[in-house]
């Protein structure tokens, strides 16, 4: 039996994956951004170990959640499933867009502060192929700010960051299987009702990477798609100097030391 934490698991694919993992006999810790959603999540997944509450658009709450996770003890797998897609900048108390905090800063902070698990999964998207590294030194939109904010640019860049995380942490930790996952375009709140992909194929990839038992899941630093298939990632994601620039930026902004 594995012990698995899934962020952003109050609905959508995160919750579907949680239910499958619970059915497979694993201990699953869920996450919701507020008490109301946590209550709904508890009802939807009665077999879960517990539900953690933290708004990952807040740096301070993200750090608090990392402390709470560590108090629960060791985990076999952490799936960074939480993410934002559409909408305005929604500048946070930290002075950056909510999407930049949830999609880029939070997974960095949680990975850096939580006791190292055996497996880590960063949720990406096929749209990371349109992400760019030209604004890597302002990945959190600190300098650009709200006026020039573009939800499309911000999302694609953040999903590129997630693939870069998988490669950067896989290089650092040879005892951890660290991978990125594109769950596909599925009819969820984020994907919309017209999304064409099969959620079952997405759940298969979540479960395979969470359990880590299949031969393909024992790889590291790779990028998977739905249906347990390896996909080709953006060439930009392989650039180790750019990976380090991104980590350095996030470490400086968050005050959380870059893991070695």
UniProtKB/TrEMBL annotation:
GO molecular function: oxidoreductase activity
Keyword Oxidoreductase: yes
Keywords tagged on the record: Oxidoreductase
UniProt cross-references to InterPro entries, sorted A to Z: NAD(P)-bd_dom_sf, SDR_fam
Keyword Oxidoreductase: yes
Family listed: Belongs to the short-chain dehydrogenases/reductases (SDR) family.
The protein's name in its UniProt record: NAD(P)-binding protein
Species for this entry: Lophiostoma macrostomum CBS 122681
